[in-house]
Every structure is written in structure tokens, then in C-alpha cells.
Zinc carboxypeptidase
Amino acid sequence: MNHHVLVAVLAIVCLSHVSGACQANEPLAIVADFEGASVRDVAIDQQERSVSFMPGGDPQRGWPCWWYFRIDGIGIDEEITLRLRGSSATIEKQKPLSAFWAMPAQATYSIDGKSWRHTARGERQGEWMTYNLKPNAPSVYVAWGPPYTPKTAERFVRETGKRSSHATATELCRSRDGRTVPMLHVREGQRESKDRFGVWVQARQHAWESGSSWVAQGFAQWIIGDDPSAAWLRQHADIYVIPIMDVDNTATGNGGKNALPHDHNRDWSPKPHWNETMAAQRMVLDLIADDRMDVFLDLHNPAPGDPCFFYILPEELIKEPMIGLRNRFIDLAYAKIRQIKPMIPMSNKPKITGVNYHPLWRQISANWVSMNGNADTVSLCLETAWNLPSSTTAGYQAVGASLAATVDEYLAERPELP
């Protein structure tokens, strides 16, 4: 056989047997040196093309359930396997966190670190959860859920401020580690502040709950949009949106929840530990002093099997008209969120965060605002489901838009401020 013909034949054989000796795959490699990354105990099987790992994170800085990293060295049209097990780090009661907090039914992945998709459903085998994906790219980012980092928040707030004449990009404060805490302030027209409703929306007091930041972004996008109802809300309210409260743990890939000495959502006390809580509390108190703390919304993600729902105080701890107004708001939100397509389950049965919920129940943000707010303050914690096929960036933002439309409809029913 002619030498040139032989080379050509070998080339064809190599191209048709990518996994064979003629074209060996590049070694898989793990990268976790970027904002929000978290992984530990990595083991790579180069022959099986699988990556075994557990969530990273310092248990002193919150539940170790968040994971996020990049895999390099993937071959064209190659399927890789993720093998996840729960963190072995001990937490409050000196035992590991239950693995189901770290194991979404579908993992999240991205080729560019911007657009996020779900893998196929994982398969649970004993202590392991296995996900298979074929990214069709040499590198892929994989995560517990769609990441939303402090840089994402900064970019969104900054670009929204530039794009909308009604939005001001600002800063709530600097964190204990010196990071900026981005905040968006939205209002339209010349109506004075004393004649405006006060609306406060904050997310991510627990750093691992990334979906809540996407809900906050969806809320902000609706209120700066072209809907006439959004224009009415801008003209009649001061609206503050903070996409990430716990920026330090979000940036460093820690869980945040139950961090020591306590997490941000247990910090609403006379002497807050966290700078973000201190700054938010100060601004909320100003709204209360002006008798216009009308709607306070704290955004979270719940347990794996939960639908969307609100947390509330028991009725014996608050008075009318707060009870009736709160119930009206919940009814409006339930009606709107359950209409989202594809469906995001929404429960109209709130859960209680009173005396038996947590030793620091009085210092939980929504509780604190209810107990210290105005007589007509509506203060709620919305838990948005994270373990569903619809728990995507689009799904989360749809919940946020529905929540913003709820605020508009609710306030439109209220008598205007004098």
C-alpha cells in the first residue's frame, strides 16, 4: 500500500474511534479558583471519565451543601459522569449535614458561565448521586444550582442603572471582608418620598440559596419594564432590591446558613453582627419611622421537596390590620405564581416561624420587621422551590416578576399616602 494512502486510512480509523489509542482524550482537570467555587475530596477516573467529589465550604461558615467548579479536558462529543456524595464535615450537632441538601434531582451546568441548563435527572445509589452530561465543549461549569455571584449582582445592578432612568445603582454597605453589597433603588417621577409606599426586597441571607438571587433579579426586571402597572408602582413607591445579602460567603463558596456566630437571617437584633444586616436594619427603621414600611420581602430557597411558600408569624403575635393585609398579599401572590408556565408549585398554606421554630426566632428578619414595623406592614419570607425541572434561571425570574406584580396589585388597593 502506498505510504500516503496508509496515512490517510489510519487518519480515518482514528477519527472514527475517538476513544481509541489513535486519539486519546485529554486528562480531565478540575478548576475551582474563581468566585463562588466550592468542591473538595476530588477523585478523577481518567479511564471511566468520571469525577467524584463532595461539596466544599467551611462548616463554621454555614452548611456545606453548595458545590460549583469547572471541568477541563473534555473530548468532542464525550459524555462525562459526576459522582457526588454529601459532605463529611460535621455541623452544629457534631454530625454531617444530610446529603439530600447537596443533591438536586438535576445538576446545573454551563459552557460559558452565563447561561445555565439542567442535566438529565441524577441517579441515587447509596451515598452517591450520579449525573451524566455531554457538554459538547472542552470545558464545562457544573453546580448545585444556577450560580449568582457578587460580581453577577454588581453587573446586574450597574447595567440596570445605566439602562433605566428610573433605577439607581448604589451600595447597601461594605461587608465585613470589604466587599460591596450592590443595591438597586427604583422610583419614577417627582412625588416626594413621604408620599410614597416603601418596598424592601432582599435575597440570599443564606449564601447557598442561589435561586433566591435570580428571584430578586426577576423582581427588579419587572419593575423597570414597560408594563403600565410597573410604571404605576415606580411612580408611587420607593423600591429597594438587594440581590445578595451574604456576599462574603457567596463569594467564597460557603453555605452561609447557620454560620457562626449566627447567620444573617438570625442577626436582626439590637446589635447586629453582620454589616449587611446593620445597614438594612437602619434603612428599614427609617421607613418605619416615616410610617411607610409597606412591603418587606425576604427571599430564600426551602427544603428539597418543598413547593414555593411563605413563612409567617402566628396571628397571636401580631394585630389587625396587619393580619388581614398579610393574608390578602399571600392570596394575590398565590394566584399569580401558580399561573407560571411551566408550572412552579405554590402552596397557599404558609408555615409558622414563631416560638417553636428557632431559639432566635425574634431575630429572623421578616419576624423582626413584623414586630417592629408599622400597623399595616406586610413582612414575609418567600421560599422558592429549587428542586424541580422549572427551578431554572427563567423559572426563578418568573417567580420574581409575579411577586413584583403582586406588590403592584396589592399597593394599588391601598389608600395612597397623604
